[in-house]
Fold this protein.
Amino acid sequence: MKTLRLLTALALGGGLVLAGDYWHSNGAGWLAEADMTSAAAAAERTPLYYRDPSGAPLWSAGPKKDDRGRDYLPVYDDDGAAVAPAPPKAQAASPRKILYYRNPMGLPDTSTVPKKDPMGMDYVAVYEGDDADDGTVKLSPGKIQRAGVKSEPVARRSIRVSVKAPGTIQLDERRVSVIAMRAESFVQKVADVTTGTRVKAGQPLMEIYSSAVASAAAEYLATITSKTVGGVEMYGRGSRQRLVNLDVPESVIAEMDKTRTAPVSIRWSAPRDGVVLERNAIEGMRANPGDVLFRIADTSVVWALVDVAERDLGNIAMGQSVAVRARSFPGRSFTGTIAVVYPQVNRDTRTVRVRIELANPDAVLLPDMYVDADIDTADAAPVLAIQDSAVLDTGSRQAVLVDKGEGRFEPREVKLGRRGGGYVEVRQGLADGEAVVTSANFLIDAESNLKAALKGFGEAASQATDAGPGDATGDRK
């Protein structure tokens, strides 16, 4: 029984071994046959393109290796597992007609067949309709996004034009007083007042003696103390007027009326609040008629004389508000108004002087101090306006790019007006609501110029081709 079982096991084992050997040998035959069939099928099929072995979005029309030396993988027409964009053959089968191929770097070089530039970059295909002759420029959505093209509709806005001009602080000519003698006089005493001292109206400045003033004072006193009737009143008014003509202060005359006494020396006082700009009075000196002994200026209101460029003169008008900033006080602004526009242009600087009246209550603005004026010339009436960046200015003409939608842009010439606040007035060429390109418009302009140049080169190339080789031979002759 044991022997039977052993023989049975050996028989079964041998069968398994034999079966295994049979299966192996037949399997190898089948594998070889499958490999031959696959190779034959692969030889019959032509790859559509080759894709990067790492799965990166890189493709090639022919066999190629990546930067690690690995072969690109072929993709066949019936390869449903590969996920990739439309292969070159599918693009070639596009119903759109390719007119020519242009240089990828924007150089004026075209080709009628696909080619590469010296750097290995493929020439870009230009399809029929891309260079339409309707005056517009068409860009693909991808190029618009990469360039950062932005559009903004034309709208009505108030243009805020700010005119800036440098200038200096000057005294108000109407607020300057001079103390000068109208008759020969002698200075007997001078108050403790010097140049730069601030004085109040009525504050004593000096005492002087003048024989002419003393004579007129005695005559006036005699008139008002006389008890004679008749023409005394008329005579008294005449003698008082003589004191006034000699510039005797009103306070001195009022004191004579009160005390009925003629003073030997006359006390001269300040005629207004202000700063002593000039002090020429010296004790004991002789002052001739017309000699200036004191010069006092009120600085509570000053002038800012600024020089406005000739081109900005049309925006300047009397009464406009002005913000003045002194270079000595950064961060502080003084508000004033335009009082006078001087009727003369400086032929050397081509500027016009403008006078601005400024309040100076704390007297920090000093004569001849440098200031910068910011004149607000805003007009309340809204006008059609676009951003400054939307204008393509060649010097002789101004144009904008109108966004027509679907990637089409139309260059259009415009007439502009005032500028200010980042916007410019449009007087002609655009309608309210039209969209204009405000960002990357120079790239679109360059694209249109490039297309015009390429079109010219393409026409020249086609003419040369139509001429034929005979004409070329004739040229060589």
User: Anything to note?
Assistant: The first strand starts at residue 49 and ends at 51. Residues 1-37, 80-93, 470-477 have pLDDT under 50 and may be disordered. The first helix runs from residue 2 to 44.
